[in-house]
What we know:
This protein is mostly helical. It has helices at about 20-45, 60-85, 95-110, 115-125, 135-160, 170-185, 190-200, 215-245, 255-270, 280-290, 295-325, 340-344. The chain has one domain (about 60-330). It is found in: Cell membrane.
Amino acid sequence: MSGTTSSDTPEVEGKRPSKRRRVLGKVVPIVFYVLLVVFLVLYVRSVDWSQLADVEWNWGWVAVATVISVGFRYWGVGIWFYLLRRLGATGLKGSGVTLTYVYAKSWMGRYIPGAATWIIGKVYFASKHGVSKARLGVSGLLEGALQIAATLALALVLLLVDPRTHDLDPWLIALMVAAFVGCVVCLIPQVFVFLIGLALRILRRKPLEDDVRPSLGTVLGGAGLYVAGAILSGSAYYFITLAVYPSLKGTDAAFVIGAASMASAISMLAVFAPGGLGVREGVQALLLSLVMPPSIALVVVVVTRVWSLAVDALFLLCAAVPTWFRRRTPTDDASVVHDGAHAA
C-alpha cells in the first residue's frame, strides 16, 4: 500500500475537484504572494541605507560571491530532490524546471514570519504537480533540521578552534552547542518519526506509512550534502565581506565562514523573524567585530542583508525564466510527475 493519502493524489481526469478545494486553490497562492510582498517591503524599509552611502565596492568580489551564492541555492534544490527520492518519490525526471521554480518561490517564503512558510510553500506548490504531500512534508521538515544541524556543526568547528571566540560569553557558546545537540537528537530517525507522529496525532491526521520514514542513511547523506552547502554559502559571505573590507586577511576566511554559518543557523531557529531579520545581523555583527573594527562590521551586516535579498530575487528569476520559454510538454502535466504511490 502507498504511504500517500487520497489527498496526495492528483485529480483524476474528468473528476471535478470539490468546491472547497477549488476555492483554496485560488485563495492560498494569493495570500502567499500578498504576504510575501508585504514582508519584503518591511524588510527593505528596515535597511539603514545611510550605512551604504560611503561604501566602496570591489565589484569583482561581489560577482564571485553572487555566483557562489546562487550556486548554493541550486545545491539546495539538488538536496531536495535527493531527499524526495530517498523517501520513495519517483517520476521526478523531466520535472526539474517546474520543481526548481517551485523551490525558488517557496524559498522566498522565508521572508514571511514562521519557518513553516518555506515548507508549506513547497508542499502546496509541488503537490499541484503530483508529488506526494506526505513525502513533501517529511522532506521539508528533514531539510530544515538537516540544514540547521549541518550549518551549526560547521560553525562550531570553525569558531571554537579560533582563540578569538574564547572572549565570547560562555553562555552564548553553551547555547550554540545546546542548539546543535538538540538538532542532532531530533534527526535520529526514531526520534524524528516520533515527533512527526506526535504532530500528526495533535492535528488528527493519519500516521506516516513505513515507506515515508527516513532511514539513517538518508539522514547522514543529507547531512553531508548540507555541510558542503554550508561551506559554499559561507564562502560567498567571505567574498562579499572582502568586497567591502579589502583589508580582511585570507587567514580570517575560516572565521568569517564560521560566523556566517552561525548567524544563518541561529536565524533559522528564530522562527518569529522574517528572513531571520535582526537575529542574523546581531550574531553576525558580534562575531565579525572580533576580526574587524565594529563600525566596519555593522556596514558588512547591512551589505550582506541587501545582497542576500538581491541573490534570492536573482535565484527566483533564474528559476522562472526557463518556465517562460518552455513549451508545454507531457512532463508539465501533473499526472506525469508522481511518486511511487501513483506509479502502479
